[in-house]
C-alpha cells in the first residue's frame, strides 16, 4: 500500500502542476471524491466501533478490506495516469487551456428585471395556498407520510416551488433580504411534506447565490459553510420518514426528541455517501463471477433489451436494494483490466474537462454545468451502482455534444440556404 500511496502523491503533484484546479472541475471532483472515500473508509473500519452494517456488509476481515483499498488506490493511480497521458498528447492550445484556472468563468451577475422581484412574493403566496389545498390540516399533522392527494396538483406544486427557488436565487444579488426571507419560508413550508426534493431545492438555491456573488474568499467560505449546513439538513430530512406521525408539528418536535440521534444520523450520511460503496465493492468481489460478456453488455451503448442486459440484471445484486458496484465488477477482472479501464476513464474525463473549459471560456456556462452534473453522477454511481448504470452517463454527455454539433452545423448552413433561395 505504501508504494501505491507514493505513486499517488507523485501523480497528484504533476496533475496539480499542469492542470490548474478550478471549482467544479470534473477531474478534481473525481480525485477528491475518491480520496475522501478512501480516507473515511479507513477511519470507519479502524476507529468507528458502533458500525451501521447496512445489509450486513460491514463484517469483513482486515485483509479483505485492505486488499480492496489497494485496488481503489490502483484505480485512482490509473485514472491519474490517464489524465497526465491526455495532457502530454494534447496540442499546445489545449495545454494552455489546462494551464488556466476557470473559477472566474463560473460567476455571473444576473440581469434581473424589477418585475421579477415584484412577482416572487405573489408566487410564494400561490405556493402557500396550493399547499393548504393539497394537504389541508395534514400540512400540520397527519398519520401517514404520503397522504392521498391530487397527483397532478402535487407535481404542479413541486414545479412551482422549483421555479420560485430559481427566481429567488437569481434576485439574491439585488434583493438579498427579500430573497433570503422568502427562501427560508419556502423551505420551511416544503419541509412539511418530508420529501427529499426539499434538499435539492436547498442545494440549487445556494449554488445560484454562490454563482451570482463573485469570485472572492468570503463567497467561497460561505459556500463551504452552506454545503455543510445542507449536509446537516439532509440528515434531518432523511430521518423524517421513520417518524410515527408526519407534518409540520411532528417534524419540529423531532428536532429536540431524545429518540432522534442526530449525530449518528449525520455520520450515517457520511457513511452512505462515501463509505458504503467500498463495502458494496467487497460484497461484489465475493459474490460476482468473472463474466466478460457482462463487461461487454455493461459498456455497450445500445438499449438493455437489445444486448440482453435484463437476462443478467436480477442476478447482479447483493440483495434487493444493493446492486453490484462498478468498482467490484472491474476489480474482479484482475490488475491488468483494472489499470486499462481506469486509465481510459482518466482519458475520457480529461477529454470532457477540455470541452468544459472551452465552453466556460466562451461563456457557455449552462452547457458546461450540464456536462459537469452528468459526469458527477457517473462518479457517484460508479461507487455504489452497477457498471452499466454508471457508464451510461458518458453516453449521455456524448449524445448532448453530438446534438450540439448538429445544431451548430445547421446554424452555419442557414445563411447559405437563404442565399440559395434568393
Entry summary:
The chain has 422 residues and is an all-alpha fold.
Please describe the structure with a list of short key phrases separated by commas or semicolons.
single chain; 422 residues; mainly alpha
Order of helices and strands: HHHHHHHHHHHHHHHHH
For the biggest sheet, the summary is: none
* Coarse shape: globular
- What class, by secondary structure content? mainly alpha
Radius of gyration: 24 Å
Mean pLDDT: 86
Beta-strand content estimate = under 5%
The helix count comes to 17
- End-to-end Cα distance, whole Å, is 71 Å
How many strands? Answer: 0
| Model regions low in confidence, pLDDT < 50 over at least 5 residues | none
Q: What is the helix fraction of residues, given as a range?
A: over 70%
Folded structure, characterized:
The protein is mostly helical and 422 residues long. The chain is 72% helix and 0% strand. Helix 3 (62-89) crosses helix 11 (262-287). The longest helix has 35 residues, at 387-421. The protein starts with a helix and ends with a helix. 29% of the residues are buried. The model has no long low-confidence stretch (mean pLDDT 86).
SSE diagram, text form:
Layout lengths: L1 H17 L7 H22 L14 H28 L2 H7 L15 H22 L15 H21 L4 H16 L5 H16 L4 H22 L9 H6 L8 H26 L4 H8 L4 H4 L18 H6 L3 H27 L3 H20 L2 H35 L1
Helix pairs in contact: 1-3, 2-3, 2-11, 2-16, 3-11, 3-15, 5-6, 5-7, 6-7, 6-8, 7-8, 8-9, 9-11, 12-17, 15-16, 16-17
Amino acid at each position: 500500500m505504501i508504494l501505491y500511496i507514493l505513486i499517488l502523491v507523485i501523480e497528484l503533484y504533476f496533475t496539480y502542476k499542469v492542470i490548474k484546479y478550478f471549482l467544479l472541475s470534473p477531474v478534481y471532483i473525481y480525485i477528491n471524491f475518491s480520496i475522501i472515500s478512501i480516507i473515511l473508509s479507513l477511519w470507519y473500519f479502524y476507529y468507528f466501533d458502533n458500525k451501521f452494517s447496512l445489509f450486513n456488509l460491514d463484517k469483513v476481515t482486515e485483509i479483505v478490506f485492505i486488499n480492496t483499498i489497494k485496488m481503489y488506490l490502483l484505480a485512482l493511480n490509473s485514472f491519474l495516469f490517464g489524465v497526465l497521458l491526455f495532457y502530454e498528447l494534447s496540442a499546445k492550445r489545449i495545454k494552455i487551456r489546462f494551464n488556466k484556472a476557470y473559477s472566474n468563468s463560473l460567476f455571473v451577475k444576473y440581469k434581473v428585471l424589477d418585475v421579477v422581484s415584484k412577482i416572487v412574493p405573489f408566487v410564494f403566496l400561490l405556493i402557500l395556498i396550493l399547499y393548504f389545498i393539497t394537504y389541508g390540516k395534514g400540512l400540520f399533522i397527519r398519520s401517514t407520510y404520503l397522504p392521498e392527494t391530487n397527483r397532478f396538483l402535487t407535481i404542479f406544486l413541486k414545479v412551482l416551488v422549483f421555479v420560485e427557488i430559481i427566481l429567488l436565487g437569481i434576485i439574491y444579488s439585488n434583493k438579498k433580504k427579500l430573497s433570503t426571507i422568502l427562501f427560508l419560508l419556502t423551505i420551511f413550508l416544503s419541509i412539511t411534506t418530508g420529501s427529499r426534493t426539499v434538499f435539492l431545492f436547498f442545494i440549487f438555491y445556494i449554488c445560484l447565490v454562490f454563482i451570482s456573488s463573485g469570485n472572492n474568499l468570503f463567497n467561497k467560505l460561505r459556500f463551504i459553510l452552506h454545503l455543510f449546513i445542507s449536509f446537516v439538513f439532509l440528515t434531518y430530512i432523511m430521518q423524517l420518514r421513520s417518524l410515527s406521525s408526519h407534518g409540520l408539528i411532528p417534524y419540529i418536535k423531532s428536532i429536540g426528541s431524545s429518540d432522534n440521534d442526530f449525530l449518528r444520523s449525520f455520520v450515517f450520511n457520511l457513511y452512505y455517501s462515501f463509505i458504503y460503496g467500498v463495502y458494496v465493492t467487497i460484497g461484489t468481489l465475493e459474490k460476482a463471477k468473472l463474466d466478460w460478456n457482462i463487461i461487454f453488455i455493461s459498456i455497450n451503448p445500445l438499449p438493455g433489451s437489445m444486448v440482453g442486459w435484463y437476462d443478467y440484471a436480477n442476478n447482479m445484486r447483493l440483495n434487493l436494494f444493493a446492486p453490484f458496484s462498478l468498482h467490484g465488477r472491474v476489480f474482479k477482472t484482475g490488475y491488468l483490466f483494472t489499470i486499462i479501464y481506469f486509465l481510459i476513464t482518466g482519458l475520457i474525463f480529461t477529454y470532457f474537462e477540455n470541452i468544459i473549459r472551452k465552453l466556460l471560456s466562451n461563456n457557455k456556462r449552462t452547457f458546461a454545468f450540464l456536462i459537469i452534473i452528468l459526469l458527477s453522477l457517473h462518479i457517484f454511481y460508479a461507487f455504489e451502482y452497477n457498471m452499466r448504470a454508471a457508464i451510461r452517463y458518458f453516453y449521455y454527455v456524448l449524445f448532448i455534444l453530438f446534438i450540439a454539433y448538429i445544431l451548430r452545423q445547421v446554424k452555419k448552413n442557414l445563411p447559405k440556404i437563404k442565399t440559395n433561395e434568393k
